[in-house]
Amino acid sequence: MSGASDASDALRGVAQHEAGALEGLLKARAENLEASGLDARTHALVSIAALIAAGAAPASYVFQVGFALEAGVTPEEILGLLVALNPMVGNLRIVAAASEIATALGIDLESAARAVTD
Asked: What are the CA-CA distances from residue 29 to residues 35, 38, 40, 47, 83 (Å)?
């Protein structure tokens, strides 16, 4: 039972963005980046591409887009990634991912939609 309780506590901590819980995730990410041999920008773009290909949960994009921006990836490069992936993963995944990426970039999609219809 203790293992299940520990897992519940860890998951709760990650979901609530507790520093201690996130520290382990960030350490694993840093180790993966180093082990990959890729530069931080490429690693970030590959990570976003993997989320798109896997049809990841919306919350996943917030962290990965944040990491990408910190690594120097521009919103235009993320858009280019969507264009490049479209033939491989299809329009449905790209449209779904574009919405989540826009939200992660702080783009207010509702205001943008209203501006188009006005």
From this structure: 10, 13, 11, 10, 26
